[in-house]
Amino acid sequence: MTAMTALEQPMIHWVEEDQPRSARWRSESGNPAPKRVVIADDRMTADAAYRLACEGTGMLWRGDFQNARQLLQALARRAEPKPKKRPKLPATPTDAFNLHRQAQSQRARTLGMLLLPFEADYSIPLRRAPDVQQACNEAYGAPTDSFVTSLRELQGLIGAHEWRKKGVDIPALGDRIHPHYGVYSPVRGEYIGLVAEAPLPSTRLAFDIGTGTGVLAALLAKRGVTSIVATDMDPRALSCAKENLLRLNLDGQVKLMETDLFPEGRAPLVICNPPWIPARPSSPIEHAVYDPESRMLRGFLSGLAAHLEPGGEGWLILSDLAEHLGLRSRDELLAAIAAGGLKVVGKIDVRPQHPKVSDQADPLHSARAAELTSLWRLAAA
């Protein structure tokens, strides 16, 4: 996911002090520009703001920045689903998933209606506004022009900046991985543990398909694989992986390549951790989680045999959450493996440990409680 150029950014328009005004709209998370924009400040009540947000009206903030933060928190409380509005009859897992996604999308649209002005140098011309120039530079690149974006998007940029600074502890690496904005953070460590434990078919060469932060390429290098080709289609991911590998002093073992799925040639080990849920992402950032019609999964399985050396293995890291949600069956997965001219030579499973597993208030709790993450060891049939 690359940052938008100024020419690709739409304009928003409003009236202020009886004069027509306009500015570029910026949203790396893919939110459309609000069609109607009004001026808002410290006098606006939370109820009035919530009504406007639900109507799809953007509120360009001219008051105190910290008051805008408090207003967004008040909007978030009002956007929470009310218990009495939840369906009484139990939905199927697929229905629960679709309703959950719908509610998430509506909530994001509503909370995205509180807007902030930015100067061309990424400063915010509001009282008590923080210095966010470094966070904006990391997400957007070098500044070019003034623009407007949502306070919620800014919070995402600041959160990504903090993750990038402190990093994610990876016990199997004995070090930390520092994710960049827009690159999926390896916070679910159970799949990394599987790659650390599985027996290596060779330490000569490996392909890491869809490397992201570079965490699995780094782990293979730490395990003694002397040469790794790590691919990704996203320039942000490749930049992130490069920075991580340099910091870990593993860049000499890993070659990064911008390509869709496989590099040329064959390897004794080909590894892939595709997005686990076959559904349409609602924003560019969600492409790491949602894989429409299992495009990446099917592409990996259909092309794997042609990129394996004789006796080599393909490692597919995949959660079965989609199966518990009714979005993909085990039979469909096995059929795709067989259709790719592959056979299963082994499988290692682990139960996730993330907080949502035990959160009974989560609408997807039953599926999450049953979830297994697996490393499928595949070979040419």
UniProtKB/TrEMBL annotation:
InterPro entries: DNA_methylase_N6_adenine_CS, N5-glutamine_MTase, SAM-dependent_MTases_sf, Small_mtfrase_dom. It comes from the Bacteria. GO terms for biological process: methylation. SUPFAM superfamilies: S-adenosyl-L-methionine-dependent methyltransferases (SSF53335). The keyword Secreted does not apply. The keyword S-adenosyl-L-methionine applies. Keywords: Methyltransferase, S-adenosyl-L-methionine, Transferase. GO terms for molecular function: nucleic acid binding; protein-glutamine N-methyltransferase activity. Residues 202-317 form the Methyltransferase small domain. Pfam families: MTS (PF05175). This is Protein-N(5)-glutamine methyltransferase PrmC. It comes from Collimonas arenae. The gene is prmC.
